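Next up, a specimen:

>
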Amino acid sequence: MSVLRDIEKLLSALTPAEKAQVLESVVADLDNTFPGIDVNPGVCGGEPCIVRTRIPVWLLEQARRLGAADEALLQYYPTLRAADLVAAWTYVRSHKGEIDRQISENETA
């Protein structure tokens, strides 16, 4: 039996209040996902990167802070798409402290 079927079977046995708790947990878990951003310990030291690339989000944000426009970033990194930059900027807004730290660490490296 697949995991999904097992979950469906378990859900049918829950009360409405318990189902609401499960739903709340699933939504919270999904809230921490960022489509287009990959965090993999074996890639770029585990720093968040644009999927399909090894371009760290902090690098794009640092370039933007230094005045690079989205159009320039798309030219500098031909594997990037406009949607990738949208994903990066969304991630930066949600993880400002983390990105600031990564920029700082990489400036002193």
About this structure: The two ends are 50 Å apart (CA to CA).
